[in-house]
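Fold this sequence, please.
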Amino acid sequence: MEKLILWGKNSINDAIINKFPLETIYVNSTKLSQKLQQQTTVPVHIKNNDFFNEITNENHQGIIAILKYFPIHELNTIQRDKPQNVLVLDHIQDPHNLGAIIRTANAFGISHIIISKDRSADITSTVLKISSGGFIGIKFIKVNNIVAALKRLKNIGYWIYSSALDKTALNFDKLEYNKPSVLIIGNEAKGVSQPVLNQSDVIVYIPQYGSVQSLNVSVAAGLLIHQITKR
């Protein structure tokens, strides 16, 4: 598995504050090194800019951190934490879409995301970069079987909402969403799988009025997440 890398002062500062498992931090100045050593016990090393430019062509701001690992949680975390809204990603495969959805989920207060272990984009440095720090504060849960996970969540009182172009689907912004709720976003090409739809209490759709009859999955996710998290 590739080493996960964070860069930029804000992302790494957030990771330190939230006690992310950082292995090493690299900086390009003594001043920044001294400041960080007052904030964290993570080893800090000074490197020249050539070192940073070899690792990434992004705006690293002279600071890069290597993660020991990315924290993954068990499904029973949801039963313990009792979040009002849970996001389930049914085989999202594009890392850019995954990162964008994570960013949006964080912005609207989603704290728990379930993703499938197989046939899904993994958490990579690209995903973390696209999320713009959105992964901080979110608990990620990987499951072998989404249907089995949904059955467990239904047993503890969660309402299951899926997005699909289905004849039984209801307009997503005309509903009162029951709580606690699970929102399922489907694969870029195939949407929410039929076995997952079969577990849904309500299927919703986003009405569209132009000649284009589909939205990018991260855009659709943004609309749905905003709606289901309204207070």
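DSSP finds nine helices and eleven strands in the chain. The longest strand covers residues 22-27.
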